[in-house]
Amino acid sequence: NKQVIPFHEGNASMKALLGGKGANLAEMTRAQLPVPPGFTITTEACLAFFKVGNRLSEELLEQIASALGQLEKQKGQKFGEENNPLLVSVRSGSVTSMPGMMDTILNLGLNDVTVQGLAKLTNNERFAYDCYRRLMQMFGNVVLGIESIHFEHLLHRLKEKEGVEQDQEVTADGWKQLIVDYKRCIQAKAGRDFPQHVYEQLRMAVEAVFKSWNNPRARIYRKINRIPDEQGTAVNVQSMVFGNRGDNCGTGVVFTRNPSTGKNEFFGEYLINAQGEDVVAGVRTPLAIAELKSAMPEIYDQLYQVSKQLEKHYHDMQDIEFTVEDNKLYILQIRGGKRNAQAALKIAVDLVQEGFLSKQEAVGRIEVSHLEQLLHRGIEENAVKDVLATGLPASPGAAVGQLVFNADTAAEWSRTGKVIILARPETTPEDIHGVIASEGILTSRGGMTSHAAVVARGMGKPCVCGCEDIRIIPDEKRMLVGNRVIEEGEWITLDGASGRVIIGAMPLQEARMTEELLTVLKWADEIRTLKVRANADNPHDASIARQMGAEGIGLCRTEHMFFSPNRLPVVQRMILADDTRERKEALGQLLPMQQSDFEGMFEVMDGLPVTIRLLDPPLHEFLPNLEELQRKYDRLTYEGGSDLEKAEVAQLLRKVQTLHETNPMLGWRGCRLGIVYPEIYDMQIEAIFRAASRCIDRGFRVVPEIMIPLVGHANELKLLRELVDFVADQVLGKDKLHDCPYKVGTMIEVPRAALTARQIAAYADFFSFGTNDLTQMTFGYSRDDAEGKFLSHYIDQKLLPHNPFQVLDAEGVGQLIDLAVHAGKRVKPSLKTGICGEHGGDKESIFFCHQTGLDYVSCSPYRIPLARIAAAQAFI
Ligand code: PEP
Ligand code: MG
Q1: Residue range(s) of every CATH 3.30.470.20 domain in the chain
Q2: Catalytic residues (predicted)?
Q3: Does residue 853 register a pLDDT over 90?
Q4: How many CB atoms lie within 10 A of CB 58?
Q5: Which of 314, 430, 599, 654 is the most buried (most CB within 10 A)?
């Protein structure tokens, strides 16, 4: 079958086979844009290559040779021929874009003979030998695995010898000398010669690009972006055009709209007399694209036309790599432009207004994981005193952290819990683990499209780029601004929105919803059927939740209301009480506190349902630590303390020992506590209805939903439901009952509850799936310990596709949910169902909830915008 496809035979719909880049090149070729001709080796060929142990089949090699033959005809050049040599680039091109993660080799086809041909042909010896040494450098690094630092050293030495600073100033003889040095270096480091045979170069390059699919940084990138390892990459072989042949040449990257703000303006950078890698790698700081207008007006106009044409064609903002060779424009590649969340929203809203997209399409395009960026923080402006320098505002948001100058240190320090700002002269894909570990990124070189900028934007991390006033010296673990020295470990703040680098840890300000976000959310609300509620435990969080668009509270964990210094001792007294009388006394103190909490919640949520979960304390969280207490007791015994003191500690110790459990998460939790000590739930229920009554009197509409945790048997719920109804009757009386349409329901978080949903539904008005516990108990993994222990190994070894505490395990836990929903609704069609575990804020899990027919998801307030959009996407 056909594993090599010339650009003019493909099209945009063949992305799975040709990769994103290949499909776009084909589509542009069809649209007759100025694309240098070439061909794509398919992802299928890549998978076949892996299957036979990383070997290119004879058949594939033949297909490549024949495609190359065609290309030679098209270009009127010959691969490996002295007089008019064809030169090609070899680039990876995966189905999902992975910027900078895999490898590229330019200028293939040069050797000791063809380089002379190129020199003659272009009448530019300096240029030809520069191309050749670049090939050796890239080939040596990517294909032969020699670290680039070795080549850089040799280059540096040469420049010193020639007394020049810039690469462009090196003479032809200099390059020739460098080629000799490079050959020696390759021989020494790789134990073989640089291949002179051009077909061998091509074969090895294709192999290397295929293999780069599995390099560590590509693997990490796929993992965090959830890109399947099974996709493989295509390889694009494209005839070369040169942006480095002189001053009527250049290269650059443009976005059809501003990728930071989304503004409809032409945005990008270019370099005169340079090859594409110079821009992307951020080695030289490029010029703003607006300057091209005066430097090369015709090229600028043509580029602008092409960009508008492409945007119209794809109905989306595009990222375009172009090269100008001898005053002629070529488009080397395009892709949907990476953008930050704010830009994505603005572009989507604008495209709807410009008539290119429907509202559904616009909502469908929002990358929900990026929305968190929007809820990014800013700096408290009046605290800013010492602005060290200002660079390019490459990725918005503010970050505070301790300075670190290399990626390994960043990763190490962050493992010990430190928050890090990674500062580098520039970043390369090799720094990816450091970028992941950091709060924010600072570079002294490179533009808005440099690696650091692109990667940070993708991850939603604040980034300041190209801050040239700062000299970053990683080897000395410090950076300099003028004669000011800033050492490793010092605290700094980055403002990715303005590009400022500020000394010290500035206080940060939470983000607000932008107009575009509100528009997209409104559209999402029109589309979705799944409701979105919030998990909130106090009136402040509840009011944030409302601002974020919550349609109710799905979970108020009442035990969280007790975690304050003035309440904890009362709660401890309640738990450790010797008898009911003592317990009731403590409860009597708690009642008004709880009542005022609930009043606050009801007022904020006026008219919307508020699900209040009765106490579910893992008891150990509320008790003094047993070991510490034991030590205290020993100390008093051996070192002598007063008898009274000893007696008190001894008594406390005895009680804590009695309550101590080996397996507290499977112990005396949830309704088990309420059943053994009914007075506790009694107090809470009373507080709820008293609060309801007060709020009704004040004119609020109150919709309480009382939720019983950790039910595993219908009898538990039956008993506690009777208690709720009884107290409601007592507190509200007949008249108020009418104004307070309360519900009683349960959490489904024990597998047995799911399995016996039919029986439980008889006593429940609603089910709320507590998927944290349900996951814990279905897998038998401790939710508190598993992640730091074996779970990461399981995920690395692909025994599990995701962390099941983050992404709902649809196959296992999901089956229990599905079963419970359907069994419950069969008994009681009016049964309301929702989810309130952490999964309620996760996109994939939200999709599952929609498909299973749940009525709502409930998640933390800041995730609500994300959940609203994901719920709409689930519907689309
Ligand atoms: C759950 O178990 O999913 C839940 C929401 O309850 P908690 O996390 O408080 O145990
Ligand atoms: Mg739970």
Answers
A1: 250-336
A2: 451, 836
A3: yes
A4: 8
A5: 599
DSSP string, 386-441: -EEEE-EEEE-SEEEEEEESSHHHHHHHHHTT--EEEEESS--GGGHHHHHH-SEE
Catalytic residue among 131, 185, 740, 836: 836
Instruction: Give the chain's end-to-end CA distance (angstroms, integer).
Output: 36
Ligand 1 atom at minimal distance to the Cα of residue 773: 2
Distance 635 CA to ligand 1 centre (A): 38
Q: Report CA(773)–ligand 1 centroid distance (Å).
A: 6
Distance between Cα 846 and ligand 2 center (Å): 18
Tell me, rounded to whole angstroms, the distance of Cα 79 from its chain centroid: 43
CATH fold for the domain made of 376-509: Glucose Oxidase; domain 1 (3.50.30)
Q: Count Cβ atoms below 10 Å from residue 778 Cβ, excluding itself.
A: 20
Q: Considering the entire predicted model, what is its pTM?
A: 0.74
Residue with tokens 């089910």: 767
Q: Is 499 helix (H, G, I), strand (E, B) or coil?
A: coil
Alpha helices (H) along 125-275:
125-138, 148-162, 172-190, 198-212, 216-225
* DSSP character at residue 625: P
**Alpha carbon distance 610, 595 (integer Å):** 14
Distance CA 534, CA 867 (A): 10
C-alpha 576/C-alpha 574 separation (Å) is 6
- What are the C-alpha distances in Å from 722 to residues 687, 725, 762, 768? 17, 5, 13, 19
Q: What's residue 279's pLDDT? A: 66
Per residue in 111-154, pLDDT (tens digit) is: 999 999 999 988 899 999 999 999 999 999 999 999 989 999 99
Fold of 250-336: D-amino Acid Aminotransferase; Chain A, domain 1 (3.30.470)
The angle at the Cα of 827, spanning 822 to 830, to the nearest 5 degrees, equals 80
| Token code pair at residue 360 | 């559904």
| 3-class secondary structure, 874 | helix
pLDDT beyond 80 at 787: no
556 is catalytic: no
Other Cβ atoms closer than 10 A to 385 = 9
| 315 labelled catalytic | no
What is the reported pLDDT for 458? 60
- CATH 3.20.20.60 positions along the chain are 528-617+669-875
Reduced DSSP (H G I as helix, E B as strand, rest coil) percent helix, strand, coil of the chain, to 5: 50, 15, 30
Tell me if residue 745 falls in helix, strand or coil: strand
Tokens of 342: 């704010």
pLDDT reading at 524 higher than 70: yes
Ligand 1 binding residues, C-beta < 6 A? 555, 557, 616, 749, 770-773, 836-837
DSSP symbol at 213:
T
Question: Residue of the nearest CA to atom 10 in ligand 1?
Answer: 773
Contact between residue 327 and residue 299 where contact means Cβ atoms under 8 Å apart: yes
E strands, 259-358, where? Answer: 267-272, 287-288, 318-325, 328-336
| CB distance 737 to 729 below 8 Å | yes
For residues 856 and 862, give the distance between their C-alpha atoms in angstroms, rounded to a whole number: 17
Q: What are the start and end residues of each CATH 3.50.30.10 domain in the chain?
A: 376-509
Measure the CA–CA gap between 509 and 51, rounded to whole angstroms: 52
Q: What interhelical angle do 114-122 and 125-138 show, nearest 10?
A: 140
3-state secondary structure of 467: coil
Rounded Cα gap, residues 243 and 36, in angstroms:
13
Ligand-binding annotation for 770, yes or no, is yes
| CA–CA separation, 102 and 93 (whole Å) | 8
Q: Phi and psi dihedrals of 708, rounded to 5?
A: -100, 120
The architecture that CATH gives domain 528-617+669-875 is Alpha-Beta Barrel (3.20)
Select from 710, 724, 713, 711 the least CA-distant residue to 678. Answer: 724
